[in-house]
Design a protein that fits this description.
With about 450 residues, this protein is an alpha/beta fold. The chain is built from 16 helices and 15 strands. A hairpin with a 7-residue loop joins strand 12 and strand 13. The structure holds N~2~-(3-carboxypropanoyl)-L-arginine (SUG). N~2~-(3-carboxypropanoyl)-L-arginine (SUG) binds next to loops.
């Protein structure tokens, strides 16, 4: 560490997987979501897999936070759409009329915390505060429900406004379409020093035409506004266009084909529209701070189809305490794929910046297109910000045990697509979340249903 930089910690806040986890087939352009639509999900296993990953990271010595699941089904939205009466009545009548609508209102998609917000550490921001913008997620109906509750969760985790600014989401309009940290990479020498923030976008929200068959979920307008409102230094900020080719191959977010940490950018050669321009811009932005290390994976080593199928890039790239080099926390699917397994083996035995690959089982989330990296939101915290973080939202051994027991008590083992029309599922979920607010100290007015809404 450079002694001139204050110590800082890269915390991972994971989305706790909610009781309505299911395979709804809701995300166009996300191949796993489409291919697994209609499968019977296992919500209890899903949540325990997510918790096991959190525990592993905490045991490695990283700061591990927990973001609570959101209240689903979203009765507030269903009421806005004209359904009335009691909660069970709303579910019954909405399901009879439009099951697809109820599926959208019931998704547990807030588990993918990499889409919760874009985070700029205080060392990058003009006012010296940590800045967060919850993503509007306006591209997909089921995800567009998340931003308000996300803001509430982040404000519960970080209450001191003199240290942390939690902005509102961008307007819910296609020009400002924003998917959060999944399209944002920060490189740095030390977490506590200034870094380079790379914003990856898929389309120009003001252009008349789109160039992809699948939706390009991030606009350059959204990325630019976030950089401006966070007070980033323009000379340390890069805007990079994702290639249309990878979007159409199923990389609906940049983090399906790219991940970065410290000085290292690990990416597929087809990730960006103009890779040479992107690398040049990152080098210029890093001047005087650090020498970027680019690890490009060629299509001949790992064809883009295999990279997306195995989710090799949707890994967490972390600096574990006591390790010289970076560690890649990859999904077990990467180990089961011949191309990516061979690539990872040779990478770890080489002498590049990534020194080991650790596999984790998050299969239930993976079947919806959410790997280890999707499940976490990285938040770099200074010493003071870490001290100020809500301790009940940080994973301790005690909280881990309590959450495992809570999941085992409240979650169904199996959830079939048609179970979403069952009003009892709503009751069970709300009861579970009400109990969770006690465990995590969120208060009795955290969820809309606790405030008499919905
Ligand atoms: O937005 N899947 C999520 C997966 C998000 C992954 N996140 C990152 N790459 N950072 C999505 O497409 C599927 C839900 C369903 O089909 O039921 C879903 O929303």
């Amino acid at each position: 560490m450079n002694p001139a930089n204050p110590p800082a910690y890269e915390a991972n806040y994971d989305g706790l997987i909610g009781p309505t986890h299911n395979y709804g087939g809701l995300s166009e352009g996300n191949l796993a979501s489409a291919n697994n639509a209609g499968l019977i999900a296992r919500p209890r296993d899903a949540a325990l897999q997510g918790l096991a990953k959190m525990k592993l990271m905490a045991d490695f010595g990283l700061v591990q936070g927990v973001l609570p699941p959101q209240a689903r089904p979203d009765l507030t939205q269903l009421r806005l759409m004209g359904f009335g009466g009691s909660g069970p009545n709303i579910i019954k009548t909405a399901w009879a009329e439009n099951p697809k609508l109820v599926r959208n209102m019931s998704s547990a998609s807030s588990m993918w915390a990499a889409n919760a917000a874009t985070i700029s550490p205080s060392a990058d921001c003009a006012d010296g505060r940590l800045h967060m913008t919850p993503a509007n997620l306006s591209s997909m109906l089921h995800r567009s429900l998340e931003s308000e509750q996300t803001g509430r969760a982040l404000r519960a985790a970080f209450t001191d406004e003199s240290q942390v600014a939690v902005h509102g989401a961008l307007p819910m309009q296609s020009t400002y379409s924003d998917e959060g940290a999944a399209n944002h990479v920060r490189l740095c020498a030390d977490h506590g020093g200034a870094g380079v923030e790379i914003f990856v976008y898929g389309r120009d929200g003001l252009a008349a035409e789109t160039h992809t068959n699948f939706p390009a979920r991030q606009t350059i307008q959204a990325s630019q506004i976030i950089a401006k409102r966070h007070g980033l230094d323009g000379t340390r900020t890069v805007f990079a266009k994702q290639s249309a080719q990878v979007i159409d191959a199923g990389a609906f977010h940049n983090d399906v084909v790219c991940v970065g940490a410290r000085q290292c950018l690990f990416y597929h050669e087809h990730a960006f529209e103009n890779p040479d321009e992107v690398l040049g811009a990152v080098r210029r932005a890093a001047q005087g701070l650090f020498e970027p290390q680019f690890v490009a994976v060629s299509d001949s080593d790992v064809p883009i189809r295999e990279a997306i199928k195995s989710y090799m890039f949707n890994s967490m790239l972390v600096q574990l305490p006591g390790r010289e080099r970076l560690s890649l926390i990859a999904p077990t699917e990467t180990q089961e794929n011949a191309y990516t397994k061979a690539y990872c083996q040779s990478m770890a035995s080489g002498n590049g910046p990534i020194g080991e690959v650790i596999y984790v089982d998050v299969r239930q989330s993976m079947r919806n297109g959410g790997g280890p990296a999707c499940l976490r939101l990285r938040i770099v915290l200074t010493e003071a910000q870490k001290r100020g973080a809500n301790p009940k939202m940080l994973l301790s051994a005690g909280l881990y045990d309590e959450l495992c027991q809570w999941v085992s008590r409240h979650y169904r083992e199996e959830l079939a697509p048609d179970d979403l029309g069952d009003p009892a599922l709503m009751d069970e979920s709300y009861k579970a979340l009400d109990a969770l607010t006690q465990i995590m100290g969120l208060g009795s007015d955290f969820y809309p249903f606790q405030r008499g809404l919905g």
